[in-house]
């Protein structure tokens, strides 16, 4: 018998984190902005009711913000990451194991708890999370991750479930899947949804009943595995093909336009450092690095320029210092004076596993550089991001992201811990 899986999802997560430390935000419309305070990426229920959509640019919302008194906040990822840790800690006693899927979603292995009323069990878990963090959640229960994801979606939107949906019940699963749009099924992209609609498959139930061979023909083994999961067969019991990651990128918009090469290199050095860190985390090396930067395309009245150059990395590498050197070579070739650049980035291509990279005769002491990178990662991991940096990154960083309305780091900085005083 397949062990049950639960997915616990935090409601309006970024807004809920902010409300945990600022009671003035409760009951009023709140939106949280993306990097560089560009557009709405989280909205309270009150903000959604005012018609604010995900991704709406803030400059289009100025009048609505003023008229309705909407509270606008910059994203505070340090706070959100720490609150995620607290949410998971609150769930640990309710599951045998867990898998963090995203910053606001966690899959829970409920094997060993089958003899319990799992709806009541999940309600107790939700209450524990609320007690420890104040964050509201919804829970979906099923035999597979895809079904648990679907169950969570209906738990959040359908009041009949009161925040917890258990789709192990045949009747409940049938009713939900017959009404659930296929384009909203986890893993079904827009192009695949259009192909399925053309075949008359418009609901999760119709997708579940699709012949497996036809599913593979329409959407490769990925869709075939998804159909199996909708039938209650976990994906690890179906043919599984792990995709080979081909590329990686680190890009940012600047808080203040960059007009000098030294400032641009400060930003690109930081992006290259982060790109190297990501490569090492995934056990990969890259064969090509592309440096790019451009002006604000949304202001055509200003001088426009976009430059990029690709550098071949020989030997292939994940060494951040080598990536910074390659980024500088590319930037020097692409740079043009007299422009105000608003975005830049590093892209890495032709990635392979580090233990499979082709060797060359003149690599130098690769083991020594590997130990250096490992030490760098450990220092920054233990003492905080950018504790150890290269000189080219600089310290002033005028180009850093704009976040003029960011809340304090309530839980991770002693200087910003909330204080209570008695009169």
What report would you give on this structure?
The protein has 423 residues and is of the alpha+beta class. The strands form three sheets. Strands 5-6-1-7-8 form a five-stranded mixed sheet. Strands 9, 10, 11, 12 and 13 form a five-stranded antiparallel sheet that branches. Strands 3-2-4 form a three-stranded mixed sheet. The model is unreliable at 237-243 (pLDDT under 50). It has 13 helices and 13 strands. Monomer.
What is the topology?
Elements lengths: L4 E6 L2 H9 L8 E4 L6 E4 L1 H5 L12 H7 L2 E4 L2 H15 L5 E6 L2 E5 L8 H16 L3 E6 L2 H13 L6 E3 L3 H10 L10 H9 L5 H5 L3 H19 L16 E12 L2 H21 L2 E12 L10 E12 L2 H15 L6 E9 L2 E2 L12 H18 L40
Parallel strand pairs: 2-4, 7-8
Antiparallel strand pairs: 1-6, 1-7, 2-3, 5-6, 9-12, 10-11, 10-12, 10-13
Helix pairs in contact: 4-5, 11-12
Short description, anyone?
The chain is of the alpha+beta class. The chain has helices at residues 13-21, 45-49, 62-68, 77-91, 118-133, 145-157, 170-179, 190-198, 204-208, 212-230, 261-281, 320-334, 366-383; strands at 5-10, 30-33, 40-43, 71-74, 97-102, 105-109, 137-142, 164-166, 247-258, 284-295, 306-317, 341-349, 352-353.
Number of helices: 13
Tally of DSSP β-strands = 13
End-to-end CA span: 61 Å
Radius of gyration: 24 Å
What oligomeric state do the depicted chains represent? single chain
Keywords: DNA damage, DNA repair, SOS mutagenesis, SOS response
Enzyme class: transferase
Domain UmuC: 5-189
Organism: Sphingomonas aliaeris
């Amino acid at each position: 018998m397949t062990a049950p899986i639960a997915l616990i999802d935090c409601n309006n997560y970024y807004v809920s984190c902010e409300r945990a430390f600022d009671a003035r935000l409760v009951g009023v419309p709140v939106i949280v902005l993306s990097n560089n305070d560009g557009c709405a990426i989280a909205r309270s229920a009150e903000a959604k009711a005012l018609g604010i959509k995900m991704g709406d640019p803030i400059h289009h919302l100025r009048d609505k913000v003023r008229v309705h008194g909407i509270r606008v906040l910059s994203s505070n990822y340090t706070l959100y990451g720490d609150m995620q840790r607290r949410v998971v800690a609150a769930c640990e006693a309710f599951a045998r194991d867990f898998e963090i899927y995203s910053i606001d979603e966690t899959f829970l292995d409920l094997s060993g708890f089958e003899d319990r009323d799992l709806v009541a069990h999940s309600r107790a878990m939700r209450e524990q999370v609320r007690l420890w963090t104040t964050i509201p959640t919804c829970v979906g229960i099923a035999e597979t991750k895809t079904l648990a994801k679907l169950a969570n979606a209906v738990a959040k939107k359908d009041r009949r479930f009161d925040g917890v949906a258990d789709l192990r019940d045949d009747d409940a699963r049938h009713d939900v899947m017959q009404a659930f749009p296929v384009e909203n099924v986890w893993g079904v992209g827009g192009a695949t949804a259009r192909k399925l609609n053309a075949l008359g498959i418009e609901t999760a139930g119709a997708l579940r009943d699709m012949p497996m061979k036809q599913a593979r023909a329409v959407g490769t083994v990925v869709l075939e595995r998804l159909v199996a999961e909708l039938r209650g067969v976990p994906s690890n019991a179906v043919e599984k093909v792990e995709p080979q990651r081909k590329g990686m990128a680190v890009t940012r918009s600047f808080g203040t336009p960059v007009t000098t090469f030294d400032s641009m290199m400060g930003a690109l050095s930081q992006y290259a450092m982060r790109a190297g860190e990501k490569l090492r985390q995934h056990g990969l090396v890259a064969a090509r690095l592309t440096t790019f930067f451009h002006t604000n395309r949304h202001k055509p009245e200003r001088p426009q320029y976009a430059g990029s150059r690709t550098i071949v990395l020989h030997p292939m590498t994940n060494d951040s210092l080598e990536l910074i050197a390659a980024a500088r070579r590319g930037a020097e070739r692409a740079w043009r004076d007299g422009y105000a650049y608003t975005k830049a980035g590093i892209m890495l291509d032709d990635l392979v596993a580090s233990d499979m990279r082709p060797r060359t005769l003149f690599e130098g002491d690769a083991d020594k550089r590997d130990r250096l990178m490992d030490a760098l990662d450990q220092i920054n991991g233990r003492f905080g991001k950018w504790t150890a940096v290269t000189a080219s990154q600089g310290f002033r960083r005028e180009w850093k992201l704009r976040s003029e309305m960011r809340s304090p780091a309530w839980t991770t900085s002693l200087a910003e811990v909330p204080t209570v005083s008695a009169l």
